[in-house]
Amino acid sequence: MQIASVSLQRVRLPLKEPFVTSFGIEDAREGIIVTVRTVRGGIGYGECVASMEPLYSEETNATAWHMLRDFFIPALQSHAYNSVQDLRDIRLKLAHFKRNKMAKAAIEMAIWDAYANESATPIATLLGGTRTEIPVGISIGIQPNLDTLIERVGYYVSQGFARVKLKVRPGFDFEPLRVIRESFPDMPLMADANSAYCLKDVRHLKKWDALNLMMIEQPLAHDDIMDHAKLQAELATPICLDESINSAEDLRKALEIGACRIVNLKVGRVGGFGEALAIHDRCREAGVDMWCGGMLESGIGRLHNVALTALPGFTLPGDTAPSARYFEEDLIQPAVTFLRPGVLAVEPLSGVASRVDQERLEKYTIQVAEVVS
Ligand code: OSB
Ligand code: MG
C-alpha cells in the first residue's frame, strides 16, 4: 500500500453536557481528523485525541497539528505498507521524534485504517483481536451536588453500563463515592483522580479502601511511578495508571516497582496501535488486568478503540460508551450504539471510511490543511 495524500481537519463537536474533571471543564470535543488516501483509492481515518489545552497531558490540537504537518506525515508518507508487520513497525519510524504521542497515534491509526480498507480486513482482525462483544462502562464527570450525582448514576445504571467511574478531586471524592456505594452496594465502581493528589494524602486515600472500589485511577502526578508504588504498598484498592504509561517501557518499569495493578490503555496516549499491542502483550504475560480508556472521541476514534478492545487482554469494561453519551450528532453513521445494555459489538468493519458522514464532517470542521505526497 502506497500513500497518495494525507489531509488534516480540525473538528469541534459540541458535547451534550460539559465534562468536568480535576483538571478542568470541557464543553466541546475538539480534535484533528487525519485522512489517508492511498494510490489504489483506499481511504483511512485517524483521530487525534489531544484537547484544546495542555491539562491532561502536554499536547494540544495546535501542537499536534504542527507535529503532524511538519514531521510525522513527511516521515511516513513515502514508505510502502504491505503487511501487518509494516504497520506494527510504524512506531519505529517515529521513535527518534520525542513524545508527542497523540499526534503520532493519529497518523499511525489512519494508516492502519487505510490498510484495513484496502485489504478488506477489519482492524480488529489485523490487530489479532478475536472477541465480537465487549462490556462497556461509563465515566461520570464531577457533579454540582450529590442529588444530581445519584440521579446521573441511577440513569446510567438503568442503561446497563457495566461499571461506573467517577471523576474525583480534593473536596469531591470520599463523600460522593460513599453515597454512590450506599445506593448501589454491588455495582462495580471506581474513581479517576487525573493526578489530583500527592503522597501526603495517603491517610485520606486509605479511607477509600472501605468503599470496595475496583480501582483508583491515576491518583498521583501524571509523570510519576515512584510515589504510585509507595502509595500502592499502603492501599488495598488496586491503583490503575493512565497518564503515567506512555510506552511499553513505562509499563515495564511501573510493574517492576509495583506502581499499579491495573492498566488503562489509550491508543492515543501511547502513540498508536503498534505501541498499544506491545503494552497489551506485556500486560497479558504479566497477568495484569487492562481496559481501554477514552478521550471523548468522536465515532472515528471510538470505532478504533472498540476494535482494539477485541484483543483478549482487555479483561475489564472500558470507557468506550456509545456516541449518544456525548454527542447529539456523531461524525459517523450509524453511531456507536449498544448491542444490548452495557455491551458493544466489535463490528466486522473494514476500516471506518464506510461509516464516516461526510456532510457532518464538513459541518463540524473548523480548519483544513491538505498535505500531498
Ligand atoms: O482520564 O480517562 C481520563 C476524558 C478526557 C480526558 C481524560 C479522561 C477522560 C475520561 C472519559 O475519563 C473517557 C471517555 O468516556 O471517553
Ligand atoms: Mg483517566
Describe what this molecule looks like in 3D.
With 373 residues, the chain is of the alpha/beta class. The protein has helices at residues 61-76, 84-88, 90-94, 101-119, 123-127, 146-159, 174-183, 202-206, 226-234, 248-257, 267-270, 273-286, 299-308, 358-363; strands spanning 3-21, 24-38, 43-48, 133-135, 138-140, 164-167, 189-192, 216-217, 239-241, 262-265, 289-292, 343-345, 365-372. A 7-stranded parallel β-sheet has the order 5-6-7-8-9-10-11. Strands 3-2-1-13 form a 4-stranded antiparallel β-sheet, with helices on both faces. A two-stranded antiparallel ribbon has the order 4-12. It is globular, with a radius of gyration of 20 Å. Bound molecules: 2-succinylbenzoate (OSB) and magnesium ion (MG).
Give a short synopsis of this structure.
This protein has 373 residues and is an alpha/beta fold. It has two domains: 3-121 and 354-372, Enolase-like, domain 1 (2-Layer Sandwich), CATH 3.30.390.10; 125-351, TIM Barrel, CATH 3.20.20.120. It contains 14 helices and 13 strands.
